[in-house]
Design a protein that fits this description.
252 residues, 83% helix
């Protein structure tokens, strides 16, 4: 087994199972009330990874700025349509609340399936990054872990409200997270001999980082508009950017 494949599997486990375990630990502890602040940190990590590492590498390797720009645009629009389709499906299948105010178990199942697909795509992106450069792979994995923890925490809340026990919610989320490893291994074997496609896969990965930060996380941050919350958000965004910069320095 090659060293690169080992990196990919390890990063896939970190972005998937490790994120789920950390989210579960936070969800079931006294720290759950402060998890919302992690959203700001994740925004800084995602945007810095996209604009300081992934996109510059994609531009440099392709030599086709227009093509990479078009792929980023297509990626952002594609993620918008996927999310719109998921929301439409959720609204039509959500059903009514039960007598305890819980949502149906089918909603929890839908969350798990959607999360599994998302993790699979993350695994392919991790493979593309490591096949390009180990440093880029580590940065990509760090960015994914940063945004997966608050996302997985939200998934936990949905599953618990759907009637799943804590242990079953944790188990099913861990199983869903392993799709990142599957995606990484498949990506390794598919992309290893398709180097010409690598910059465009990186462009899609960057588009996903930008879309998640701008469309999903930043609107959540705007729910708190007071000066103290804003100061915390700015500080944590800066900390997220600093994490990527320091990762670059340490791995240079």
């Amino acid at each position: 087994m090659s060293v690169t494949l080992l990196w990919i599997i390890g990063a896939g486990l970190a972005a998937g199972a490790l994120s789920v375990m950390l989210a579960g630990l936070l969800a079931f502890s006294v720290f759950s009330a402060s998890v919302s602040r992690m959203v700001s940190y994740a925004v800084g990590v995602l945007l810095a990874a996209a604009f300081l590492d992934v996109l510059p590498e994609a531009f440099e390797r392709s030599g086709n700025a227009e093509g990479i720009g078009a792929m980023v645009l297509a990626g952002v629009l594609g993620f918008f349509l996927l999310e719109k389709a998921a929301l439409w499906r959720h609204q039509h299948e959500h059903g009514s609340l039960d007598s305890q105010g819980h949502i149906g178990k089918h909603t929890g199942l839908m969350i798990l399936v959607g999360d599994g697909f998302h993790n699979f795509v993350d695994g392919v992106a991790i493979a593309a990054a490591f096949l390009t450069d180990v440093k880029l792979g580590v940065v990509t994995a760090v960015a994914m872990v940063a945004h997966e923890i608050p996302q997985e925490l939200g998934d936990f809340m949905v599953l618990l409200n759907s009637g799943y026990s804590r242990s079953r919610a944790l188990l099913f989320n861990v199983l869903s997270s392993l799709a990142s490893v599957v995606g990484g291994v498949i990506g390794y074997f598919v992309l290893e001999d398709a180097q010409a496609a690598m910059p465009y896969v990186l462009a899609v990965a960057a588009a996903s980082f930008v879309y998640i930060a701008v469309a999903d996380l930043i609107p959540h941050m705007h729910r708190s508009a007071d000066a103290r919350s804003t100061a915390w958000q700015i500080a944590l965004i800066a900390a997220g950017v600093a994490t990527i910069v320091m990762t670059d320095v340490l791995l240079h």
